[in-house]
Amino acid sequence: MKKQSGFTLIEIAIVMVIIGLLLGGVLKGQEMMTNAKIKRLANDFNGISAATFSYLDRYSSFPGDDPNAATRWGAPVVSGNGNGVIANGERPDVWEHLRSAGLIAGTGTINPTHAFGGSITVQQNGAGITGIVICMNRMTGKTAEIIDRQVDDGNGNTGEFRQTVNSAIYSQNATNLTVCKKL
């Protein structure tokens, strides 16, 4: 009599259950990592807002627009014109002023990056919002929508958190959105 070789149905079922558990664990882990990054993005918006208002309270000017920054910290820090507007030419100086004041980490005028690898900027007007805004680029539609629901009204075209694309609905397939939040 020949001995049969192969796997029994029970052995195959056990392997399938193990594979399913592994896949479930990996997918849940990825979801947890994404959620942690989203929380960091929301914290970045809040932290930069807090640093900017701390600077305003301490020096009576917005960072980047401070007319006394060069006198206060010396070269290479550049002063703004003090008109209450963060003009395009003053945008890089926002970071240098905040860093020189010890309100955020780092040195120089380079834009910080967020958890998904995009740039963070502070500027005058953006995404249909008038006034000083904090903007982040390289955001997916899904991520932008989640953050909007956490910090605002969930509508990409209204409120204090908006996408630069003129649409109330976030495109779930978008991979390079820029979103802005009113300071």
TrEMBL record:
InterPro entries according to UniProt: N_methyl_site, Pilin-like
Gene source species: hydrothermal vent metagenome
Pfam families reported in the protein's UniProt record: N_methyl (PF07963)
Keyword vocabulary terms for this entry: Membrane, Transmembrane, Transmembrane helix
Name assigned to this protein: Uncharacterized protein
Entry keyword Nucleus: no
UniProt entry tagged with the keyword Membrane: yes
Membrane spanning stretches: 6-27
